[in-house]
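1st attempt posting a full record on here, be nice pls
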Amino acid sequence: MSEDAPAEKAEPVETWSDDGSADHRFRVVPAAYVILRRQRRDGSPEVLLQLREGTGFMDGHWAAGAAGHVEAGESVVEAAVREALEELGITIDATDLRPLTVMHRGERHGPALEQRVDVFFEASRWTGEPRRAEAAKSADLRWFPLDALPDPVVPHELRVLEALLAADMPRLMVHGF
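the predicted structure (as tokens):
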């Protein structure tokens, strides 16, 4: 570090541990999804999608521009803001996230890791130019007209995008049961 550079202040690390108080309860994995949306010159909507690669889940499918698990000690809103920065290199103010729907997703009697609660947000304001900030997990990043999505799209995300196009977004969706 040069003498001119200000010293970086270490952020306090929040830790979380399982105290065992919920061992008898069913657990789900929470995740946050951010769908970036903008208007085309003709006024029709388009969304930013990334082509998954190297993740081990739905590689070769198009997906929301940013998505990921909620980490210990953060809210789903904080997770959405963090994922947008990590995956797209953009900053979204939490007040610019519009909740779209919540999806309970999984398989009846399936593995615990695949029991999910996904919270989908839409954003039409952000700072920075979206880019593939995690290139090892994404083969491409492109804007698509909402009425002309690529194929294939991750199935549960496609349901949300189709509801967005139809302007008929349910508050709650269930997928896979």
